[in-house]
Automatic annotation (TrEMBL):
GO terms for molecular function: calcium ion binding; carbohydrate binding; unfolded protein binding. This is Calreticulin. InterPro entries: Calret/calnex (IPR001580), Calret/calnex_CS (IPR018124), Calreticulin (IPR009169), Calreticulin/calnexin_P_dom_sf (IPR009033), ConA-like_dom_sf (IPR013320). It holds the Pfam family Calreticulin. Disulfide bonds join C106-C138. An alpha-D-glucoside binds at Y110, K112, Y129, D136, D318. It is found in: Cell surface; Cytoplasmic vesicle, Secretory vesicle, Cortical granule; Endoplasmic reticulum lumen; Sarcoplasmic reticulum lumen. It comes from Oreochromis niloticus. Belongs to the calreticulin family. Residues 212-258, 343-422 are annotated as: Disordered. Residues 382-413 have a biased composition (Acidic residues).
Length: 422
């Protein structure tokens, strides 16, 4: 009796595998062939230029080649088109790798998903998109992963703060949008955030609102503590905050006609007790904090299609960078979460270790070179000091060995008289 159920489950699993689709994949493995698939926007005449590069350090010289920003302080606008599709009833997975090998100080590393009606030659910052996803870094305060969803023509920022990677290595970014209106953000194939569209974006009006007709009753006492009516202020409580310094004495040279009447300086009064307040006791009439009752929001309507986008057809890079050098690679758009995970393992997963090793080796070599240069500089400085000391010594020795000049005494004393004149 259980056998047909097993067959059904297996067939359903196979059906899901067969139906899984990859809508877009780009690894830049054919040299300059990418230039025929990607379109540079002409909306501005001074967009930054892209180049194909694996960067200064990498795991695989060919596999790690991606498109790299190459000009500082520029906007960049580049996009690629694919066969339009809708994510209705199935997951939408957007994935790519980013490497900020330039120690980025301010710039974007995100992508935008556009409808197929986008004019790629005129793509710009105000072009309407469906989803914006990826890292954004600017200074110390902004180091986050953007997840911006366009709903009914308006862009909505996620309410959660998702930290991005800010080192110089390659990282894998993945966004999964599910048909049950949940989402998941992964970095390096590890989940870093998840939730639902309704909870984490302000796309819909609130389900509940405060009842505009409800008001706190006038006799509602929400004071947990009150003054003790039986407590009275002690008679000796009131003391001045400052008093004349009893140890001060009028200076001997004080002239009242010139300086006025002498008054001792004021000091803090050690007997001052501050403002008196009665003791607090529990309020016998306390009813607790009044909670404003809520009602169903008449403007709220559930929308089960917030996750859905029709005619998805363009992936774009529309960003600004102060310091260029970011490399984008391994783009993937699919409806198969497992496919994206495996693709990440086969690309980023295989090269991340060797890339890190190459970077560390380069840093070790640079450090050793700096140390050698510093040693050489110190050696030259020491030899220079020794040479200066030697020259100074020779000059001093020469001065001591100088023979006296016979005529020196005559030249120096012109007033001396010959013997015969004495």
């Amino acid at each position: 009796m259980k056998f047909p159920v097993v067959i059904t489950v297996v067939l359903a699993s196979l059906a899901l595998t067969v139906d899984a689709r990859v809508y877009f994949k780009e690894q830049f493995l054919d040299g300059d062939g990418w230039k025929s698939r990607w379109v540079e926007s002409k909306h501005k005449s001074n967009y930054g230029q892209w180049k194909l590069s694996a960067g200064k350090f990498y795991g695989d010289a060919e596999a790690d080649k991606g498109i790299q920003t190459s000009q500082d302080a520029h906007f960049y606008a580049l996009s690629a088109r694919f066969e339009p599709f809708s994510n209705e009833g199935k997951p939408l997975v957007i994935q790519f790798t980013v490497k900020h090998e330039q120690k980025i100080d301010c710039g974007g590393g995100y992508v935008k998903l556009f409808p197929d009606v986008l004019d790629q030659s005129d793509m710009h910052g105000d072009s309407q998109y469906y989803i914006m996803f990826g890292p954004d870094i600017c200074g110390y305060s902004t180091k986050k992963v953007h997840v911006i969803i366009n709903y009914k023509g308006e862009n909505h920022l996620i309410k959660k703060d998702i930290k991005c990677k800010d080192d110089e290595l390659t990282h894998l970014y993945t966004l999964i949008v599910n048909p049950d209106q949940t989402y998941e953000v992964k970095i390096d194939n590890e989940k870093v955030e998840s939730g639902s569209f309704e909870d984490d974006w302000d796309m819909l009006p609130l389900k509940k609102i405060k009842d505009p007709e409800a008001k706190k009753p006038s006799d509602w006492d929400d004071r947990a503590k009150i003054d003790d009516p039986s407590d009275t202020k002690p008679e000796d409580w009131d003391k001045p905050e400052t008093i004349p310094d009893p140890d001060a004495k009028k200076p001997d040279d004080w002239d009242e006609d010139m300086d006025g009447e002498w008054e001792p300086p004021m000091i803090a009064n050690p007997e001052y007790k501050g403002e008196w307040k009665p003791k607090q006791i529990d309020n016998p009439d306390y009813k607790g904090t009044w909670v404003h009752p809520e009602i169903d929001n008449p403007e709220y309507t559930h929308d089960a299609t917030m996750y859905k986008f029709d005619n998805i057809g363009v992936l774009g890079l529309d960003l600004w960078q102060v310091k260029s050098g970011t490399i984008f690679d391994n783009f993937l758009i699919t409806d198969d979460v497992k496919e994206a995970e495996e693709f990440g393992k086969e690309t980023w997963g295989k090269t991340m270790g060797p890339e890190k090793k190459m970077k560390n080796d380069q840093e070790d070599m640079e450090r050793k070179l700096r140390e050698e240069e510093e040693k050489e500089k110190n050696k030259e400085d020491t030899e220079g000091d020794d040479e200066d000391d030697k020259e100074d010594g020779e000059e001093e020795e020469g001065e001591d060995d100088e023979e006296p000049d016979d005529d020196a005494g005559i030249e120096e004393d012109n007033n001396a008289k010959p013997k015969d004149e004495l």
